[in-house]
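ok here's alpha-L-fucosidase, seq below lol
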Amino acid sequence: SSTLFAQKPESREQTRDERMAWWREAKFGMFVHWGVYSVTGGQYKGKELPNSAEWMMNRGNIPIAEYEKYAARFNPVKFDAAEFVGLAKQAGMKYLVITAKHHDGFSMFHSTASPYNVVDATPFKRDIMKELAEACQEQGIRFGFYYSQCQDWHHPGGMGNNWDKTIQRVSFDQYVRDKAAPEIKQLLTEYGPISIFWWDTPRDMSKEAFDSLHSSTGLQPDVITNDRLGKDYPGDHKTFERKIPPQAPADKYWEVCMPISGSWGYKKIDTDFKSPTTLIRNLVDIASKGGNYLLNVSPTGEGNLLPQSVERLKLIGQWMKVNSESIYGTSASPLPKLAWGRCTAKSVDGGTMLYLHVFDWPSDGKLLVPAIKNDVRQASLLAHGTEVKTRLTDLGIELTLPGEAPDPYASVITISIDGELEVGIH
Ligand code: H79
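and the structure came out like this:
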């Protein structure tokens, strides 16, 4: 493609694998959508607005001057950064990415480029991004910013607002110069180490605007970016939204971001919370295809998470406490599609460790791990270390399992194999 969307300079490209090493190891992160839209939880003038939440301003065609008033109602007194980050950590998440500015143009940090921010325009007056950056640093959680670089429904040069005709429009380039570029520079210089800069969502822009946004991430040499800055800009990793790819994608680094419920931002009426089983199996499914899971939660206007989210994060954490070895640092399954669950793999000294995640426990106790031609050194249940009997057959390895599944979400069996793993049709 054109030089407009050129790759990163050679010197940085060479270290991409190094920069991605922690991310690949981490596998699991928390995504957070939080802003002044969270005050009403998707409702406008007391009524439920379809597909609203963080899109409320757009869905309600709310004029800028009217939407600004939500800032005066944003006072999340229940927010405690240490507690919030602690919950992510307890769930087994290794990083946190939060909306520094969503499409509505409201800055959740003490922006020096726009007074429409959490310190200057709300009764709360606290720099939420700074508090989270510090809490993450303290608790060993990597920290990243989501930033809507194209759509900004508040600035007269931002994209996306076609309903407020009262504003005197300026160019997108001017919006980048006045707001986006200085804000990004501030986020990448005043908030400590930033591990991820998460662009959303790509639209056409001039070379000047692209170069300015693109070069600003160079302020933190180790920062990881996704593929949503510009149309053909690959970034460091690919982002899938809401849907898990049915097969392992060809991309070296990729993630699936997905809300824990129906929407990204807090919604008062949200009946679509995913079950703990679905959430844990999603994490396993994504890991088995070599990707990361960025699971979104939605703080309310008061700054807390709904009990449905807290409960789910804690259940995932309980599962991870026993089984995280089967997730962190693993790579995609080397096996063909498995009827009963998923597999992740790790290279170990002189061999391979396979982690079999059994979703459907066999009623006859016989589990076939297809296509493996190697003898097994050892097989055991990860939860208790109980050894599992194995037999090499024409079709692969047959395991003899106890009658009951040890885990209702996903029972993990480890298989260690000496030497090179041989997989194929017999
Ligand atoms: O931040 C989250 C979304 O707000 C944002 N990306 C994720 C991570 C996003 N921006 N655009 N889109 C997602 C896709 C746009 C979907 C739309 Fe709609 C369909 C826009 C209008 C119709 C969904 C449904 C949003 C409003 C109604």
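fwiw Residues 1-10 have pLDDT under 50 and may be disordered. kinda neat tbh
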